[in-house]
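Record minuted for completeness.

…
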Amino acid sequence: MNYRDQAMIERMINNSNVVVNLVGPRTYLKRREEFDFVNIEIPERIAHACKKKGVHRLIHFSAAGAHKDSPSFDFQTKAIAEEVVRKVFPNVTIFRPCPVYGFNDYFATTIERQYNFFFRKFCIVSDDCTALKQPISVLDVATCVLNALKLEHTKGKTYELGGPNVLTYLEVYEVLFNFLKMRPKLAYVDPDFLKFLTKYIYNWQFLSLEMIKKRKHVSQYRHHRLNSEAFRARWNC
């Protein structure tokens, strides 16, 4: 798919009454302009195509923690994209999910890849693992999308999607290592060294500069937002 070709995007959504945008950046991206294209320009192009083709509903996926003041390029650009998309397509429904887990999901497999890379000996951490996660099942996210399409009042709204449990990173590691029937084995590495390594030498798929920058910011932002205005997956309709 060539997202720089507006005509191709319009052909893809032709005769559709619902469009769901799940396009997101690769973990190895480092430059701001790369995130601008994936998180801002592509959603804007999709929104324009939806408006032109008369699409009834547009579902746009952002992320919990998206904020213009975030140290993460990903979160910065996703926050901007929400405004851009809403300006083009005012009735868009925006979802901001916490990490999503399911079969072959990115959230759990990233930790597994790192563990396997280090010969199944340990995982690298750059803090005290007290940052918070609120993982949500992919099935619950799908339920949210279906319910939003049924309810007209969800047009033009933004919803945070979080699972029923708030876990620290340490608890996440404990759950995942439980499946391996092993104690969590974590190796602390200085965060400044990891930032230098991922910025100037190599961005691993399982350990990138963006992942390091997001960690604390997501915890502080999500805990406040989801406790105050959570849009739980298990809503009754």
Remarks:
- The helical segments are 6-13, 32-53, 73-88, 106-117, 138-150, 169-179, 191-201, 209-229.
